[in-house]
Amino acid sequence: MIPTPHIDLTDASLIAKTVLMPGDPLRAKYIADNFLTKVVQINNVRNMWGFTGYYGKKKVTVMGSGMGMPSIGIYSFELFNFYGVEKIIRIGSCGTYTKDLNLYDVILVKDAYSESSFAKTMGISSRKILGASTTLNNRILKAGESLGIPLHLARVHSSDVFYRLKHDEFKTIHETYGTDAVEMESFALFANAKALGKKAACLLTVSDSLITHEATTSQERQEAFTKMIEVALHSL
To answer: Which residues have a Cβ under 8 Å from the Cβ of 81 and sit 6 or more positions away?
Structure first.
């Protein structure tokens, strides 16, 4: 069943069993350039950049997912279902809903709440909260401990909308569902892993605060969020 419509590769060996998946393809290139050796660029990924290389002796692929649940839903499904990928670790940014989290703090997502119909429409589950892989999360927690990088285990809100017109609705979502931060992809990634019997996890760096209105720049989001990258790679 390869090539697929969005990952136009006929050689599945070019993709490792473990994929690190930032939303921004520029972050994928940054990881490949600064953390991996023996890197091969995967040129046929439609609209995204993919790279396969080695972190120590571990083979890993880094590929952008694009923004939002439909985009990561497509790329992660094709990787899991057609290219033999067993584990995907999303590495992204998020906005915090609580004053207990600060810019640059790293979150390990325990589970994700969403209003999205992604899982229900796909026929996986009508549940609004889906969890990450416990096995994979445990490996990531151990990696964080060995590197001395604190990880905040938390529930996040996976939103379909970035520019919510009723801005203060986040306060009700935070209080009702216990969500500490907001992003736009992990719910769909967890749904695909659940559907296909694979493993998925999500590491996020706090890029802005809905409480204090502090925010990082696009350049910082691309190049300064290195702690979660180090933890993800160290967990391989």
So the answer is: 1, 196
Residue 6 lies in a domain: no
Q: How many whole angstroms from its chain centre is CA 18?
A: 13
125-151 residue pLDDT tens: 889 999 999 999 999 999 999 999 999
Say which of 24, 105, 180, 208 is annotated catalytic: 208
Active site residue 24: no
Q: Residue 215 maps to which CATH number?
A: 3.40.50.1580
pLDDT of residue 231: 98
Tokens of 31: 């990881």
> Could you list the residue range(s) of the whole structural domain that residue 209 is in?
12-234
Judge if pTM exceeds 0.85. Answer: yes
Rounded to an integer, what distance in angstroms lies between the CA atom of residue 103 and that of residue 22? 18
Give domain status of residue 4, yes or no.
Answer: no
* Ranges of residues in the chain whose predicted pLDDT is under 50: none
Say if 7 falls within a structural domain: no
Residue 182 β-bridge partners: 95, 157
For residue 3, being part of any structural domain is answered with: no
Residue type, 190: F
Q: What is d(CA 93, CA 219) in angstroms, rounded to the nearest whole number?
A: 13
